[in-house]
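notes to self, project folder thing:

trying the whole complex as one job this time. last attempt i did each chain seperately and stitching them together was a nightmare. two parts in total, labels are on each line so i dont mix them up again. if this works i'll redo the older ones the same way
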Amino acid sequence: MNLTTFYLAFAGLVLAPLLGGLVAGVDRVVTARLQSRMGPPLLQPFYDAGKLWSKVIPPASHWQGLFVRWALVASLASDVLLAAGADVLMCFFVQAASACFVAMGAFCGNSPYSKIGAQRELFQLLCYEPVFLVAILAMCKAAGGFDAFAIMAAKGPLLYKLPLLIPGLLFVVLVKLRKSPFDISASHHMHQEVVRGVYTDYAGRDFALLEIAHWADVTVVLWICSFLWATGPLQMVAAGLAFLFAALLIDNISARLTWRYMVKVVAPVSLFLATANLLWLYLE
Amino acid sequence: MGFLNKSQLKSPWLMHFDCGSCNGCDIETLACLTPVYDVERFGIINVGNPRHADVLVVTGTVNPRNAVVLKNLYDQMPAPRLVIAIGACGCSGGVFREAPNVLGGVDKVIPVDVYVPGCPAKPEAIMDAVVTGLAKLKGILEAR
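result (full assembly):
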């Protein structure tokens, strides 16, 4: 590991959660504008996290604090791996571990809503992880390398070779951003049938750390999506924003689906499309 | 004032509990969330979980049965917390205060920080109550 890699990894560790927080701020402002509202300030997610951090409340279970911290470590590690140009598949697996820790922490709580949310979180993992894995495999095959730098150094946009990945990646972004119609485990817009689902029992500092882990996750997912047009830094930002705005638009025009529909229809269809694209690359 | 204290004032998450209201005040409370009033511009979010809430908004009269629930919700909220009693019933029991099953206003069970009169209370008055409550919270945070 040379010094440049170390600097890049450190930048990933610090900047990725901040970027994720900004994405959350943009999300809330744009959503409000789409609904003819003014919306909160851009930095509102940071105020929310600061507020949660300063709240004193005993945890629902002593295991929860441990799982939250592991989830945060795993999410930040996936950012660091991606920023340092490591294997994208490794980044994907570390990020999946983070999602598992969140669900395990929710299972430790006493609230039935928390347990329902955790079960739904596992269903979501079951649905989007294979799609995301095949999408990453297809990107690596098209770019000719498994590390992030190899994909970002690919000649020309990968999108032309990977058009069938778009529905799958959009599905992944919608799930990871906790947006309708796949906001099944957490009820991002609160006060709904499972209260806050997987987040119900997390409160105070644990919840603040979980928010930061979520921001880190969002950065990783949008970053991997932006590999589809990785011809330069600006193009990558534009590609990431395109996925974000598509997700916001879909969130505002759709109602929540049931987990059964997600498992039976959405996951198989998007997985079939992504796999077809991967096979096409091999047969080409 | 540091970032953490400032963020407490910029991010009040509300939990609304109907203690036996006629729904008049509840509709006015929910009207605050609509594009016309848009309380999210103050960072206010309506939450359904007492563990995430900073401000408890209570409408309606208190009776011996829902007093237990009200106390339970209040006890689950993390400190520092604010309580806002909305409408004539929430403030004092209103026209029902002499009824045999009515204990009175919200302050018979939990300490109330801001009272919002009206039957029903106007959305503007409810938003003003939150702002007044935050000014009180600011005093508490600065005095620490």
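what i see at first glance: The mean pLDDT of chain B is 93.
need to look closer tmrw
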